[in-house]
Amino acid sequence: MADHLDFDGLVTAYYGMLYQFAFSLTRDEASACDLAQQTFCIWAAKGHQLRDKTKVKTWLFTTLHREFLGTRRRESRFPHIDLDYAAAELPAITPPSVNRLDSAQVLKALAQLDDIYQAPVALFYLQDYSYNEIAEALDVPLGTVKSRLTRGLSRLHQLLTVTLTPPSTP
Amino acid sequence: MNRDEAKDILLLYRHHHEADERDPQIAAALAVAKGDEQLAQWLEMHCARQFVLREKFRQIAVPAGLKEQILSEHAASQRMLTRPAFNLQRALVLLAVIVVALLAVFAYSHRHPADDTLAVFQNQMASVALRGYAMDLLTDDAGKIRAFLKGKNAPADFVVPEPLKQVAQSGCAIQGWRDTRASMICFRTGKPLPSGAASDLWLFVVDAKSVKGAPASSVPQFAQVNRLITATWTQDGKVYLLGMEGEADDIRKFL
Q1: Contact by Cβ (8 Å): B223, B232
Q2: How close A125 comes to chain B (CA, Å)?
Q3: pTM of the prediction?
Q4: To probe the interface with A, which of B60, B71, B77, B80 has the most A CB atoms within 10 Å?
Q5: Cβ separation of B58 and A126 shorter than 8 Å?
Q6: Distances, alpha carbon B141 to alpha carbons A11, B15, B146, B189, B210, in Å
Q7: Does the ipTM exceed 0.85?
Q8: What DSSP character marks residue B237?
Q9: Do residues B10 and B29 touch, judged by C-beta distance below 8 A?
Q10: Which residues of A touch B56 (CB under 8 A)?
Q11: How distant, in Å, are the alpha carbons of A170, B88, B110, B111 from that of B100?
């Protein structure tokens, strides 16, 4: 499909998912728009260098992620919460409980993850990417992606559990 | 693989995702879940949870107009890319014009404001005569001198005053004067010449347009220039400068 896409076609096909990925990383609409737009600008300037046009989608996600890493400000992060990532010790949150959350809450939890976990987790949920494709998009080895996904998903689930747990009354 | 190890692996499992199911580690963990009822129940809930979470991510609303904004910005940038080529061309032309103009102004301003006046011409030609020169042609044949000068695009159709025609010529040279050439015709009056000298009377001829303040008529104007007494006049669009060492009366007899 990407073989025959002109710029307009490419934007039409991917701008939505790129924005969602960008928003999941930044949680800021303007920044996400900028990232998506910048990604297409880079494509317009350098896309011709991509020999394998079937990799357009991966190229776009890779580029957006690099732009995010390159341009983000070193803001004061949320307090680091040291969580055990072992799935065996994960509290059981039920799907209906998760369903009570809205996207903003999920993304807020995602933002509390260490930086290296955010992008793989976002791609894991947003796209039907295989682990290999996520590794390719983020330019990291497959084993690293799996490791980061395991830790990232564990921490995300724990943070969501905290979010869903009503504060105890004295 | 025990239950806890399988759970860690299955955290990455997405239900009905072919690539996930092809992963050997996940396939092995799924096999464990098949024989472990507790793990199977956990997996079922996990898959449902993953599905809900995936939907939460996918519910991120894309701002209306983003696509149009991207396309619009791209179109604008394309225009900017084509415009600089045009602007660059114009800028280069403009720059060239400015440079030429500046050079012209510079050259003009650094040119002596009166360096093409009669006085300067007289001084320059007198210096040539007094400080030494090399004749381009040594001959007493007036015809050859004219032919030589003509061949060098120097004034050759000059009019020699009748008295001067009686004086022997010894040769000629061409002197640069601003953007043109001045003919220098050398005469020998017959007086004893200093050692090494070949002439003692010189006639310079140049286009009148190149000399500001040249005499308006053919009536000679006399002036002392350095050690030379000079007579200057204009005739048929040419400025004539006759010079020799001596007094005004000395030069009058050649006019």
Answers
A1: yes
A2: 5
A3: 0.52
A4: B60
A5: yes
A6: 91, 116, 9, 15, 28
A7: no
A8: T
A9: yes
A10: 98, 101-103, 106, 125
A11: 88, 18, 15, 16
